[in-house]
Each structure stands twice: as structure tokens, then as C-alpha cells.
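User: Before I run my own analysis I want an independent prediction to cross-check against. Here's the chain; please return only the C-alpha cells and, at the end, one sentence I can use as a sanity check.
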Amino acid sequence: MENINQAIELIGEQLQEGTIFWYGLFGALFIVAVTCLFRGIYIQARRAVESAYFTVFCIPIIIWAFLIAATPLLVSSGERGTYVMIGIVAADILIPVFLMFHIWSQVSYRPITFAVRFFWLLVPAALIAVEAFELYDPGINLNFIFYGRITVISLVSGFYFIVVIVKSYLLCFNVFYQMPKHMRNSTYQMLIAITAMLTSKLIVLYFAAPDNISGVIHVVAYIIALGTLYKAFFIANSSNVIVTSRDFVFSNLSTLVITVSLKGNILDWNRKGKNACLPLPDPKYKEPYHIYRKRIIEECNAASSPYDENIINIVSDAGEHHFLFAWHEISFLNRKFGYLVEISEVTKSYSKLRYIEAIAYFDNLTSLHNRNAYIEKVKGISIEENMPLLILVGDVNNLKKINDTLGHLMGDKLLLIITDVVKKKAPERAFVARIGGDELVLLIPKANDAYATAYINEVTKTLNSINDPDIGTPSISWGYSVMYNTTENYNDVFCAADAIMYQAKQKTKQISLSGIVPPEKNKEG
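Assistant: C-alpha cells:
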């Protein structure tokens, strides 16, 4: 230790203020800082990269380097010497604060608001004010001394320097936690800058270096800091670093993402307090997921989709909203840790899916199920719960004749009148389908011959009461058969009903005038 101190004293004797080396050293720092200042302005203006705080960081370094280098020339009078000392102290206090602001702007998406700047600059402003009072009027005792050479201002400034440096380190370390490995290289450069500043301060304090030696140490630290911070711009700009932040990405998702434990309890979620865009209640910490889902249904007038239990339909004054609840397992090396539940609004895609399904499974004209839906239904109809199963087959009378004479619009009108009556008279449990141009099928579980007769009579009575000016009185021929148990073949039972319907239709063609076009309509056609 004694040898180190002797070496420092020897170097100090060689580095006297006002020497050529002295001017050269601080002049070099001055030139580097001015260059970085203008480059920072250029980067900000031309590349749309956040470098405003970098240029601000350069300004106190420029002032500090100039004033110290020119001190032998400027302190010839007491008043000018006071101005110089205030400038040096102010720059020395502000440099680490602006370093922190610059790092903050490069690695954090949280803005540096006016309140934040005011808070962090309050202590430096107070320290500079105390130094100014002391220098202007040494009789003012604001900076009393204790423990030999330690003063209040040196103690407060030292503590504040540590706080600022720790804050800068934490900002950088947050990058290592939040960002992927390939986005950390620019932050390594910032860590070098912070460490250079901290190391220079520790060396000066530990070895009690004289002012001229401490000045040289700080010059080296500032040059390293400026160089590494400038280099960081070209490795990765602030936007690229911030946009890879996991918290930033997580909070900006349009979907609601919930982390669920293995026991099914909610541990975390994004967009806390920001779910106004989604008509969903906020989750609660450690709330069981099934309770949260139940709460959504109760509080939002919601219901599970009949097509997919992972879709919830919410009806509000603004209309219908559909949300998909997608589960993702969180695991690593075959070890399962929990789940992610991604809740995304699928209203548009859900509506399109329902539209496509309507085209695929519903008749566009009558809104009855079509042949595709009928075939799918028949595949699972032969179960004991449906027995006895009544199969009703109907065929609209004179549809072809009306299409040929009055046109398809009148034929469509005939179909709509008949299918409307058929639907209204059918029970809720009935499956009603249009399986051909003029052929209808009803599948009614838990029904028998007596019910078939009553239903046919009711439909016929209603149709007979209609006398449309265009198509007259509509009618439909019926046939039915009952499937009593699952051992019977569905096609055999259907064919029996179809045969009865065919016989009824033949009789209708011979004796019924239902739907016959009046002579005047026929002439117009």
C-alpha cells in the first residue's frame, strides 16, 4: 500500500496543472465529448433512435473537462475562480445522474416523466446550491466538517452517487431477466460504462488520490463511458431492446393471458387493471380457475358455446362477444410446472365459422337443417334414449308445377308457407330437415303412431285454412313409420315411411286440387 501511494505521489508530481500533458489529456476528453454530443444529436434527428439523454450526458462532461483544463487560466481572480469551482462541482454531481437517465431510456419502456426527473435531480440541485453558498460566502456554515476531512456535502453526494449507480445496474440487470440473450450485447457496453464510473470513484476515495491524479482517473473513466455508450447505439437501439422485454410484450398483448398453477389456482395475468377493452372481470390472485370461469358466466350474462365448451358467448348492450379459452402446458424437460390460459376474442372468426356452418348445415331458403345436417344427425340417432323414434317424411305437393308456370319465386313462397307451419307445429325435441327440393323429414324421439296422426292432422288443418292469392291452398303429402328399438335398421324404417308418403302423394295428385294455379294466373305466366 505504501508503494502504491508513493507511485501515486510520483505520478502526481509529473501531472501538474498547466502542463502540456494536462492540457492534452483534458483536451482529448473535451474533443471526445463534443464529438459524441453532435453524433448523439445526429442519431436522434436522422435515425429516430432515442439519444436525447446521451447528448445531455455529454454536456456536463464537456463543461467539466473544459473548466478543469482551463483552471490555471481562469482562477487568476477570486470571482472568476468561484464560477469555475461551481461549474466543476455541478458537472461532477450531474454526470452520474444523466448517465442513469440515458441507460433508463435505452433499456426500459417506462417513461422518464417530469416527476421522475424532478425527484432524481432534487438532491443534485440541493448539493450544488450548498456548494454555491459556501463558495460565495465562506462564512455561511452549511457544510460542517466531521471525522477530519469528511463533510456533509461529500457524505450526501457519495451516498447519492451509490444510489444512482445501483439504480443504473438494476436497469441493466433487468434486461438480462427480461430480454433474450441475443439482445443483451448493447447492455454489456452500458455495464462497462457504469463500472468505469464506479471504479474511478472507488480508486480515488480508497487511495486518497490528490486532485490532479483523481482528475486523470476520471478522464479515463469518462472516455470509456462515452465510447461504450456510443458503441451500444450501433449494436442494438433502444426500441429493439425494449420491444423484446417479456413484461412489455406480455402487457401489450390484445389477449388476456393467465398463469395457472398445477392445482388450478390463478397466479398471474397480464393487463392488470387494463381490461376495459375486454368485457371480462379481472382475475384474482390464487382464485381457482374454474371459479373465475364461473364468475365470468354469472357477471357477464355469458354461456358456453353449444359447439365448443372452450368458447364462451357474452351478450351485452354492445352486442355479442365470443371468447376462446385456449390452454397451454408450461413444461421443461418432461417436467410440468403449470398452465397458460389464453383468452382471446374470436367474435369475427366465430361469426364467420357460424356462417360457414349455416351454409353447410342449414337450408338458405327455409332455415331448416339441410341434407348434410340430416346425414350427421342420423349417424347418432340410433340410441336407446331416442326410442321409440318417429320418422315423418313429407313431400310438398305441386311444387314443380308452380315453379314451371309461375316461376321459382312463387315456388319458394309455397315452400316458406309450408315449412313455417311444419316448424311451428313440431315439438322442440324434433329434428326438421329439408333433404331435397320438395322433401322434408322430421325425426321425433319418444313419439309413436298416435302422435304422428295428431301432428299430420294439425299441419293439414292449418294449411287448409290458408288461401293465398298467388298459390291457392298449399298442401303436403305425409308418410311415417316408427323405429321401436335400436336393433332395427334405420334405412328400413325410413323406406317404409317414404313408401307410405309416395302412396299418399299419388292419391293427392289424382283427387286434390291443392296449390292448383287459377286460370288467370296461368295465362299471365
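Sanity check: The two ends are 119 Å apart (CA to CA).
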